[in-house]
């Protein structure tokens, strides 16, 4: 297991198996959340990344297919994770695998839709994969500040709650339940401040770091790994809650960094 010859490069977006990182723990909790929907089910994991989540689900599911666009990542997954009911494929999320059409009970896709410009086709493919009454579990960053275009260079677009619900509805999904993850609590002078204030505090510090590095002329010499390491070290100083909680979408205060939705394909199985 530890001699896997394929490596998954950390870019700041692709999840790697670093159990010490906030990114890993956040992703892990999403898969643990999804497991409850996958017992004895036929499951597809779109953008499976380093594969640990597909493997986790395969321990309780009837079958699992994990797909990712990166061939090296799929080689890593196939080499590292083995189960008779588990398969990994290199496939674009916008490519429809004909053998899976109408054959799945659950589709899981975490932190994927924001990378896809034609996200309606992405959702339509998922709709076609699912049997009637099938379940989609999807996560994406919460664009509650309505920033367009996204500040993250890897993202084609980002969604607020209303945007995401509208996209799901028009592509045949209903019974949509919205959850939140990654609520940051920060103490200011020993007093707990609101989510909005705490995020402003973090963003201000991170931007100051960038300004300092840029001013001394080294920002261009620092790769993504180093930048995210700086941010990660900063964030680890503050209490993080990776629980996935049902979201009161009418509350302005209760804003998570990540949206997690559970919805169903129209029709009764």
The CATH topology of the largest domain comes to: Rossmann fold
Percent of residues in β-strands: 25-35%
CATH level-4 homologous superfamily of the largest domain: Vaccinia Virus protein VP39
Which CATH-level-2 architecture of the largest domain?
A: 3-Layer(aba) Sandwich
CATH class of the largest domain: Alpha Beta
| Mean pLDDT metric | 81
- The total of helices stands at 7
Q: Can you tell me the overall shape? A: globular
- Please identify the structural class as seen in this structure: alpha/beta
Note the main attributes of this structure:
2 domains; globular; 8-stranded mixed sheet; 10 strands; 269 residues; alpha/beta; Rossmann fold
Structure notes:
There is one protein chain. It is built from seven helices and ten strands. It is of the alpha/beta class and 269 residues long. It folds into two domains: 188 residues, Vaccinia Virus protein VP39 (Rossmann fold, 3-Layer(aba) Sandwich), CATH 3.40.50; 49 residues, no CATH class. The strands form two sheets. An eight-stranded mixed sheet has the order 3-2-1-4-5-10-6-9. The chain has a two-stranded antiparallel sheet with strand order 7-8. The protein starts with 21 loop residues before the first helix and ends with a strand. About 4% of the residues have low confidence.
């Amino acid at each position: 297991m530890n001699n896997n010859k394929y490596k998954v490069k950390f870019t700041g977006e692709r999840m790697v198996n670093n159990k010490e990182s906030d990114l890993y723990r956040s992703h892990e909790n999403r898969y643990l959340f999804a497991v409850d929907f996958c017992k004895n089910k036929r499951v597809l994991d779109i953008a499976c990344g380093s594969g640990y989540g597909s493997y986790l689900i395969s321990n309780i599911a009837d079958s699992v297919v994990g797909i990712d666009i990166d061939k090296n990542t799929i080689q890593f997954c196939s080499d590292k994770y083995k189960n008779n009911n588990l398969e990994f494929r290199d496939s674009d999320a916008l490519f429809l695998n004909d053998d899976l059409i109408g054959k799945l009970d659950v589709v899981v896709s975490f932190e994927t839709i924001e990378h896809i410009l034609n996200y309606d086709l992405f959702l339509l493919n998922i709709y076609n994969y699912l049997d009637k009454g099938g379940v989609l579990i999807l996560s994406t960053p919460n664009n509650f500040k309505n920033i367009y275009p996204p500040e993250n260079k890897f993202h084609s677009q980002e969604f607020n709650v209303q945007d995401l619900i509208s996209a799901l509805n028009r592509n045949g999904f209903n019974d949509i339940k919205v959850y939140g993850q990654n609520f940051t609590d920060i103490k200011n002078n020993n007093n707990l401040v609101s989510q909005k204030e705490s995020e402003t505090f973090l963003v201000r510090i991170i931007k100051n770091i960038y300004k300092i590095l840029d001013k001394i002329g080294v920002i261009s010499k620092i790769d993504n790994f180093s930048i995210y390491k700086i941010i990660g070290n900063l964030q680890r100083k503050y209490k993080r809650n990776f629980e996935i909680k049902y979201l009161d979408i009418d509350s302005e205060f209760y804003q998570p960094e990540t949206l997690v939705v559970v919805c169903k394909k129209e029709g009764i199985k």
